[in-house]
Design goal:
This protein is mainly alpha-helical. It has 7 helices and no strands. Helix content is 78%, strand content 0%. α2 runs antiparallel to α4 and α4 runs antiparallel to α5. The protein starts with a helix and ends in an 18-residue tail after the last helix.
C-alpha cells in the first residue's frame, strides 16, 4: 500500500495536470454541445416562424378572396375563376414552401417529408400548376432553396417521363380501338 501512496505523492502534480486537462476537454465539449443545441433551436424557431407567417398569409388571402366586394376593391375588378385558381395554387405553393422549410431545418425527418414530396410531384404534374410555378419561380416570392428544390423535382419528372416513353411499346392502340369480338360463334 505504501508503494501506491508513494507513487501518488511523487506524481501528484502530473495527476493534477491530467485532471485539469480532462476538465478542460469536458468543458470544451459542453460548450460545443450547448452551441449546437442553440443552433438547432434557432433553426427550428426560424422554420416555425416561416410556417406561421405563411399560414397567416394564407388565411388572410382566403378571407379576402371569400368576400367578392373586398376582393373587387383590392383588385379593381371582379374576380374570375382563374383568379381563384391562381390564389388557391399560390396558397398551396406557400404551404409546400413552409413545409419544405420545416424539412430543411430538420424539424421534419425524411420519413415525414417523403409524403409531401410525392404530393408536390403529383401537383407539379398538373399542367396548370406547372404553368403557375413557371410564372412565379423567379419572382422572388419563394426562398431560393425551395425554387432550386422544385426545379430538381421537375427535372426528375421530365427524366421519368422520357424514360417511360422509351419503355412504351411502339403500338399505341388503345383497348377501345380493337374490334369487338364476334359473339355469334
Amino acid at each position: 500500500m505504501s508503494d501506491v501512496m508513494t507513487y501518488l505523492i511523487t506524481h501528484s502534480q502530473t495527476l493534477a495536470n491530467l485532471a485539469t486537462t480532462i476538465g478542460v476537454f469536458v468543458g470544451i465539449f459542453a460548450l460545443l454541445f450547448t452551441g449546437y443545441q442553440i443552433h438547432i433551436n434557432n433553426r427550428q424557431t426560424k422554420a416555425k416562424s416561416i410556417y406561421e407567417i405563411q399560414k397567416d398569409s394564407r388565411e388572410i388571402a382566403l378571407q379576402l378572396l371569400s368576400d367578392r366586394d373586398v376582393a373587387r376593391e383590392l383588385l379593381g375588378k371582379d374576380l374570375q375563376l382563374r383568379d381563384f385558381a391562381d390564389a388557391t395554387i399560390g396558397r398551396l405553393f406557400n404551404l409546400y414552401a413552409a413545409i419544405f422549410q420545416q424539412y430543411r431545418y430538420k424539424i421534419l425527418d425524411k420519413g415525414l417529408w417523403r409524403p409531401f414530396e410525392i404530393e408536390i410531384e403529383q401537383f407539379l404534374a398538373h399542367p396548370y400548376a406547372a404553368e403557375f410555378w413557371e410564372s412565379k419561380q423567379e419572382s422572388g416570392e419563394y426562398d431560393p432553396k425551395f425554387v432550386t428544390y422544385i426545379q430538381k423535382l421537375q427535372k426528375r419528372q421530365r427524366g421519368k417521363r422520357s424514360a417511360s416513353r422509351e419503355a412504351e411499346p411502339e403500338n399505341h392502340d388503345s383497348p377501345c380501338d380493337s374490334k369487338p369480338e364476334d359473339s355469334s360463334t
